[in-house]
Amino acid sequence: MVKSKSLVALTTLILLLLAVGTASAGLGTSGSKLEKEVSPGEHLTHVMQVKSDASDPPMDIQVELLGYGQAPNGANRELNASNDTSPYSARPFLEVSPASFHLKPGDTQDVTLEGVIPKDVGSGSRYALVKIQTAAMGKGMVGFILAIDVPILLTITGSEVLNKGEIENFSLEQPVSAAKQTLSLLFKNTGNIHYYPTVKAVVKDKDGNIAANVTVPSPISLLPTFTRLFKFDLNPETPLKPGKYNVNASVSLNDGTFLASKEVSFVV
Questions:
Q1: Structurally, how many domains does the chain consist of?
Q2: Which of 33, 72, 187, 248 could form an SS bridge with 229, CB 3.0 to 4.6 Å?
């Protein structure tokens, strides 16, 4: 019996993780992302439509407002009130309704996000997630849950925008190869707004000659206070000759605005 319960829990967890952040088969939304400028004192209203296919079973849906976090790989992290400690959270001044509803096959249900932007909200942007999730479905030993995360990204109109960041760690994997160098860079957004960081790494020999370079853009924006892990390879056109080399990594915005840099050395 214990083994059966574990299997059901594992199956449920896997299907939930696959579904989060996507328009899952049988469960979809319109208005599945809100990114806009808002003003202090403004009353914000955003309507999302949750819908199912006519061939789907009836679904019991729960809706929850959560803090918006990110894992180092860029995946969403759903943060409850006790873990949502970022000063850039929008969760405290927003609410969603209804909190639960029954969705018949082929039906559509409006879900409303609303709230008043505090007059003393400050500068930069504020973030939250709306989690829309079904109750566990299925029969026997296989249970599954469908879920969608709706990102909320609000930028305060006319406020001071700080595009800042720092490299917390930059290293080469050992042993170092003359034909390929594998690097790991952990970058933190220390500003007050989300942006898309791009890493550029250059290998130079002791005379300053460029031996290899690579540019690695992030396809997912990075929220303030969170980190992004970049892992990438440098592939010289020809194997490096024995000697000492430096690798300089710089992080910038898409428009080229410099954010941070760090250098490490290695010997072939």
A1: 2
A2: 72
